[in-house]
Design goal:
Blueprint (H helix, E strand, L loop, with lengths): L1 H20 L3 E5 L2 E4 L48 E2 L4 E2 L11 E2 L4 E8 L4 E5 L4 E4 L2 E11 L5 E2 L6 E8 L8 E11 L4 H7 L11 E2 L4 E2 L11 E7 L7 E8 L3 E4 H11 L16 E3 L3
Parallel strand pairs: 3-10, 4-18, 12-16, 12-17
Antiparallel strand pairs: 1-2, 5-8, 6-7, 6-13, 6-14, 7-9, 8-9, 9-11, 11-12, 15-16, 15-18
The structure holds zinc ion.
Length: 289
């Protein structure tokens, strides 16, 4: 009896903390935080699967007041992302290993700020972490998340997909390079994510929240086996710009179910549906060595 009462108090306290932590939250619902009415923070598009809500099926048709289509690339016939990564693909001849030679991430990458932009949680990095693509340096600018996963690996979806976004030099093709990692649920919090998870707002915000003295060892967010699939696709959210090279790790890492839940409570589903594979798109496999 006492134990039940204590547990009840703990639950009430936890709920209170969650509500207080949710800036601009005016209440708590089981389906997520109730945020102030949309002030334009989210923009015109969403991940909604319902009609006329600006969801993925409508991204390519959304227009401004003058009738100008906002995100024409979302309806483009060039390869869009995400895709269903097939089980067997050809082994790439020129593929590199995701080792220290090519993934030059700082051992302690400083997080500059974090934002809930209404579509995802995103952590922006201070400069210094890079990736070599076609012998060119691409700068790691941010990491963000999708739940459920956007890609599927050999037919399997995951509770979370992590995108490390690198931007190439002016005029480079591909213009961006993404290292994508799947995460499956575990009982234990992922310690690297634990360093930033509580900094993210439950409600959308216009300007990022500055973060001080937080560094991430990003290699801890990669699986031991760094085999990956590679293909050229697009941004998975508007403006859906093409010429994004994906390096999709073949093995997942682990995050806690509670960490995934905190993210989905704040944002709901954040995945673009699988896009058709365009004839001629090469999906190649690279082993870890
Ligand atoms: Zn993404």
């Amino acid at each position: 009896m006492k134990r039940t009462l204590l547990l009840g108090v703990a639950v009430v306290l936890t709920s209170f903390v969650v509500v207080v932590a949710a800036r601009s939250s005016i209440g708590k619902q089981d389906d997520g935080p109730r945020c102030e009415s949309d002030d334009g923070t989210k923009g015109t598009w969403s991940h909604s699967q319902s009609d006329n809500q600006g969801g993925p099926n409508e991204w390519g048709e959304l227009a401004d007041g003058t009738g100008k289509v906002l995100y024409p690339d979302c309806a483009a016939t060039t390869q869009q992302s995400p895709i269903a990564i097939p089980a067997r693909t050809e082994v790439a001849k020129d593929a590199f290993a995701l080792d220290n030679q090519h993934l030059k991430w700082l051992p302690a990458a400083p997080v500059k700020d974090v934002i809930n932009n209404g579509h995802t949680w995103q952590a922006n990095f201070a400069p210094g972490s890079k990736m070599l693509v076609d012998s060119k340096e691409y700068e790691l600018v941010q990491v963000h998340f999708h739940s459920p996963s956007e890609h599927t690996l050999e037919g399997r979806s995951y509770p979370l997909e992590i995108h490390f976004v690198h931007v190439g030099p002016q005029g480079a093709r591909p213009f961006a390079s993404v290292v994508a990692v799947m995460a499956e649920e575990d009982a234990v919090d992922n310690p690297e994510f634990a360093k930033i998870w509580s900094s993210f707002n439950a409600c959308p915000q216009k300007t990022p929240t500055a973060v001080s003295n937080v560094t991430l060892d990003l290699t801890k967010l990669l699986p031991e086996d760094r085999g990956y699939h590679r293909y050229d696709g697009s941004l998975t959210a508007p403006p859906c710009t093409a010429s994004v090279r994906f390096h999709m790790l073949s093995h997942p890492i682990k995050v806690s179910a509670a960490q995934v839940k905190a993210f989905t409570r704040a944002l709901g589903p954040t995945n673009r549906p699988i896009q058709p594979i365009v004839l001629g798109t090469e999906i190649e496999y690279a082993t870890q060595n």
